[in-house]
Design brief:
It is built from 14 helices and five strands. With 330 residues, it is mostly helical. It folds into two domains: 213 residues, 3-Layer(aba) Sandwich (Rossmann fold), CATH 3.40.50.620; 83 residues, Tyrosyl-Transfer RNA Synthetase, CATH 1.10.240.10. It has a three-stranded parallel β-sheet with strand order 1-2-3. Helix 1 links the parallel strand 1 and strand 2. It is elongated, with a radius of gyration of 22 Å. The chain binds tryptophan.
Length: 330
């Protein structure tokens, strides 16, 4: 079975956009691939060197992954910092990663601009750590968003370079598996932007009904259609996109008809949309709560994932050490 690896930085709660972007495709992939889904807590240190509660942050993502249907019996779910073999590979990869290429990475330049007082070496070598995450399991597929494409190119380059330097065929070059799904957008209070944490315009998976209703009812609209069958402006299209995802086809068609004949009432649409989001979210929210209330279980699942990740990583590191010429591990 082909191996898949993907990581997520534990920087907050998952929202519905994350669900329809990444997590849903993870849930599908776990049935067809040998999947490793890990929580990239080391990576988060490049931006947040002093996290409030690193253990709890990881538990949160873990609980949310499980609540969404990622199954620890099928996929290996673990916390990056539990698998120290990754660091050893990170070191070897760094020996053959060049300052120039690391500095040219768009994500590095962007981060350097965002945090000019903390342009640290971890930030510079973010792509080598990511490559180590992936190559340590010899993954051939990596589901990531478009913003990670350059990091993926670096990963392939590092894999190729290692193979060339030591004249081996150890690492496959992993392909990006872009979850292309049309970006899920919910209009912010200002009526712009796609669903993202930073915008304060998103609906979290752990959000309760009252709060969802409030957010949806506040969503910006316009003054209504100006002519029959006119094109929908962005703020309205956003609501329809959402409707398309969480509501039935009948509901969508009903409101679409109302838009087209000009009789639409946004209040009605939002009320329906809110209820459909609540219906979608509620079972997930309940499961998140259950998991969050059972840290013992969460920690046990993380431990079991770590075991499996260790096993795979140890095998690779043993090969790498032998290839470079180190004495065998005792
Ligand atoms: N860089 C990824 C992001 O910000 C997170 C990540 C770290 C990752 N290591 C990875 C993703 C390995 C895929 C594979 O989204």
């Amino acid at each position: 079975m082909e191996t898949v690896v993907s990581g997520i930085r534990p920087t907050g709660n998952l929202h519905i956009g994350n669900y329809f972007g990444a997590v849903k495709s993870f849930v599908q992939m776990q049935n067809a691939y040998n999947c490793y889904f890990f929580i990239a807590d080391w990576h988060s240190l490049t931006t947040y060197p002093k996290p409030d509660d690193i253990v709890q942050n990881a538990r949160t993502i873990l609980a949310e992954y499980l609540a969404c249907g990622i199954d620890p019996e099928k996929a290996t779910i673990y916390i990056q910092s539990d698998v120290k073999e990754v660091l050893e590979l990170y070191l070897y990869l760094n020996m053959n990663a060049y300052l120039g290429e690391l500095e040219r990475t768009t994500t590095f330049k962007e981060k350097a601009r965002q945090q000019p007082d903390n342009v640290n070496a971890g930030l510079l070598t973010y792509p080598t750590l990511m490559a180590a995450d992936i190559l340590v399991h010899k993954a051939v597929k990596v589901p990531v968003g478009k913003d990670q494409e350059q990091n993926m190119e670096m990963t392939r380059k590092f894999a190729r370079r290692f193979n060339n330097i030591y004249d081996v065929e150890l690492f496959p070059e992993p392909a990006s598996f872009s979850f292309t799904s049309k970006a899920i957008k919910i209009p912010g209070l200002d009526g712009s932007g796609k669903m993202g944490k930073s915008d304060g315009n998103c609906i979290y998976l752990k959000e309760d009904a009252a709060s969802i209703r409030k957010k949806v009812m506040k969503a910006v609209t316009d003054s209504g259609p100006t002519a029959p069958n006119s094109e929908k402006p962005e703020v309205i299209q956003n609501l329809f996109t959402f409707l398309d995802i969480v509501s039935t086809k009948d509901t969508y068609d009903y409101f679409n008809g109302k838009w087209n004949d000009g009789s639409i009432r946004y209040g009605d649409l939002k009320k329906q949309l809110a209820e459909d989001i609540v219906a979608f979210n509620e079972p997930i929210r309940e499961r998140i709560e259950e998991y969050m209330g059972n840290t013992e279980l969460l920690d046990k699942i993380a431990r079991q994932g770590t075991e499996k990740a260790h096993e795979s990583a140890r095998k690779t590191i043993r090969q790498v050490r032998e290839i470079i010429g180190f004495r065998k591990h005792p």
